[in-house]
C-alpha cells in the first residue's frame, strides 16, 4: 500500500498506530518491527521511538486506543448482564483471532521485559480493574452483591480464569465459558446454609 | 563443582535433572543451555536431547520430578484446609523465588513454543487439575460443597487468580492472598437469599 506522508503531530500519532495494527495483522507479532511501522506511517523511526520505547508498548497502545471505549461497562442495573457484556468484548478483542495470538505474544514478552509488563499494567490491566471494581461497588450498593464480598479481589477472580485459558491451558475462550465463570463466581463453591 | 561420570540410565536421568536445577539456579533460565547441563551431568548433549527436546521441557520435568509429591492433596476431611495446603505448596514452589522467576520464564516461552506449552499442560497443569477435581468431588460427596457447583470449572477458578498475579499484575503471591481467594470462592459474589 502507499506510504502516507503526514505532518501534524496528532495525525502522525494516529498514522503510526494504524500502521502498527495493519502490519501486526499482516506479519504477526514476532516479525513486527518499529522500522517497518515507521516506514508504513511515513515517519522516521526516531519519531516512533520517542513515544513508544518498544514494539510491545506500541502494539498495546494501538489496539487499546482504537478499541478502549468498547471495554467500558454499562450500568443497566443488571450486574451479571453488564459484566458479561464487558467480558465478551474483552475476550472478542484480545482472546481470539485476529488479535488474540498477538496479545498473547505481548504477554509472553512481558515475562522477560519489565518495560512491556509495566505498560501492560499501566495502560490496560489496572485501568480495567478499576472500572470493574467501580461497577461492582455500584452493584453492591444496589443489593446485587453479597455485602461482605472482597471487592478488591473481584476483578482478579473474574479475569484470572480468562488469562488461564489464554496463556496456560489453551482451551477456547467461548462466550459460554464466560457464562459459566460468572454463574460459578456468583453462586459460590460452599454449601448453602 | 566436579563433573560427575554416571553410566546407569536411571542414574543418568537423575544426574541430568539435578544438573539442570543446579545450573538454572546459578545462571537463570535465559542463560540455561542443554550443552551446559550435559557437561555438568557428565553426559553427551544428545543423551539429553533424546529425552528432553528443549530446555523448557527439561526444566519443567526436573522441578516437578523432585517436588511433585508435595503437590498432592491430603484428605483430612476439611476441604478448605486441604485446598489451602496444596495451593500454598504450589505457590511456594513455582510462585516465588528461587523457582518462581524461572517458572515464569518457562511460561513466557510457552507463549511462542507449542512444544513447551504442550509439556506444561501434559506434565503439570492437567495432572494438577485432575487431582483438584478429584479432591473436590470427594468434598462434594461429604456435603462440603454446593451440590450444583460446576466442578469442571473449579480448578480454573482456583488457579486463575494465582497465574494472574504471577504473569500479569506481578502482585505478590502471599499465603494471605490464597486465604482471600478461597474465602471469596466459597462464599460467592451473589447476594445471599
From TrEMBL, chains A, B:
Limits of the HTH tetR-type domain: 10-70
InterPro entries (alphabetical): Homeodomain-like_sf, HTH-type_TetR-like_transc_reg, HTH_TetR, Tet_transcr_reg_TetR-rel_C_sf, TetR_C
DNA-binding region positions on the chain: 33-52
UniProt-listed SUPFAM superfamilies: Homeodomain-like, Tetracyclin repressor-like, C-terminal domain
Keyword Metal-binding: no
GO molecular function ontology, one term from the record: transcription cis-regulatory region binding
Protein keywords: DNA-binding, Transcription, Transcription regulation
Protein name: Transcriptional regulator, TetR family
Taxonomic lineage from the root: Bacteria, Bacillati, Actinomycetota, Actinomycetes, Pseudonocardiales
Amino acid at each position: 500500500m502507499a506510504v502516507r506522508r503526514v505532518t501534524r503531530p496528532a495525525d502522525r500519532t494516529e498514522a503510526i498506530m494504524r500502521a502498527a495494527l495493519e502490519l501486526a495483522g499482516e506479519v504477526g507479532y514476532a516479525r513486527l518491527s518499529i522500522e517497518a511501522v515507521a516506514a508504513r506511517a511515513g515517519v522516521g523511526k526516531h519519531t516512533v521511538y520517542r513515544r513508544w520505547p518498544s514494539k510491545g508498548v506500541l502494539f498495546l497502545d494501538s489496539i487499546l486506543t482504537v478499541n478502549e471505549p468498547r471495554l467500558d461497562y454499562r450500568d443497566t442495573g443488571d450486574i451479571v448482564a453488564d459484566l458479561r457484556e464487558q467480558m465478551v468484548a474483552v475476550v472478542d478483542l484480545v482472546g481470539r483471532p485476529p488479535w488474540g495470538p498477538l496479545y498473547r505474544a505481548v504477554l509472553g514478552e512481558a515475562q522477560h521485559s519489565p518495560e512491556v509488563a509495566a505498560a501492560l499494567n499501566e495502560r490496560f490491566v489496572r485501568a480495567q480493574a478499576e472500572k470493574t471494581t467501580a461497577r461492582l461497588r455500584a452493584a453492591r450498593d444496589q443489593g446485587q452483591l453479597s455485602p461482605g464480598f472482597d471487592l478488591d479481589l473481584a476483578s482478579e477472580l473474574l479475569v484470572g480464569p480468562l488469562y488461564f485459558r489464554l496463556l496456560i491451558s489453551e482451551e477456547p475462550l467461548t462466550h459460554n465459558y464466560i457464562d459459566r465463570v460468572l454463574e460459578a463466581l456468583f453462586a459460590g463453591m460452599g454449601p448453602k446454609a
